Amino acid sequence: MRRRPFHRYLNARRPREGAAAIEFGMIALPFLFMLFAIAEIAFVFVLDSVLENAVVETGRLVRTGQASAQGFTADTFKERMCARMNIFAAGCLSKVHVDVRAVGTFANLTPPDPLQGGGFSAAGLNYQNGAPGSLMLARAWYRHTLFTPFLAQGLARGGSDSWLMASTSFQNEPWN
Fold first, then answer.
1. 3-state secondary structure 93-104
2. Quick check: helix, strand or coil at residue 63?
3. Which of 56, 92, 127, 133 has its CA 20 to 30 A from that of 68?
4. Which residues of 58-67 are buried (b: 16+ CB within 10 A; e: fewer)?
5. pLDDT 10s digits, 11-23
6. Could you tell me which residues are beta bridge partners of residue 60?
């Protein structure tokens, strides 16, 4: 008869029922944080792409003279732009600010930055339809609230809001 070493006997009888639950508990929080952060970054990229497309398409109305013919104002431009925001159109009018202006040249262009100073200030924003042949700059800022805690600290400016910006520049067509 052969005797087994004592330590093998103890290892075989050690309870292991809760080990998986404890290990899952240790990795669940970092895993879920990373999962939500990846989802939120993907959401922000989609939102930025939709915003960029809406600014370009609405800027086309200015470029072709349709905005001038219909007497567009900043509010009209925002309404038309938000209508192109598809699934993000809900609440768009309260979250977006626009700046459409005629510029003399694109060289050394320094339009006002409403995010200068840490917060958002719409004081220097303007709206112009421009004349035929004018060089134009159309910009839009969209306020988006971030939900992932550490992501909000890194990307937000003031509170938990991040500002997405889209712009397009073009020369108005000779619509006369």
1. HHHEEEEEEEEC
2. helix
3. 92
4. bbebbbebeb
5. 555 666 777 888 8
6. none
- Which residue type occupies 152? A
Contact 109, 152 (CB under 8 A): no
Q: Name residue 120's amino acid.
A: F
Decide: 163 and 54 in contact? Cβ < 8 Å. Answer: no
Strands 161-171 and 135-145, sheet pairing = antiparallel
pLDDT of 176 > 80? The answer is no
The residues, any chain, with a CB within 8 Å of residue 94's CB and separated by 6 or more, are none
The rounded distance, in Å, linking the Cα atoms of 84 and 10 is 69
CA distance 171 to 106: 11
How far is it, in rounded angstroms, from Cα 94 to Cα 85? 13
Q: Read off the amino acid at residue 26.
A: M
pLDDT digits 0-9 by tens, 49-96:
999 999 999 999 999 999 999 999 999 999 999 999 988 888 999 999
Q: Which residues contact 46 (CB under 8 A, 6 or more apart)?
A: none
**How many other C-beta atoms lie within 10 A of the C-beta of residue 104?**
9
Express the helix, strand and coil content of the chain in percent, nearest 5 each: 45, 20, 35
In the DSSP assignment, the letter for residue 2 is -
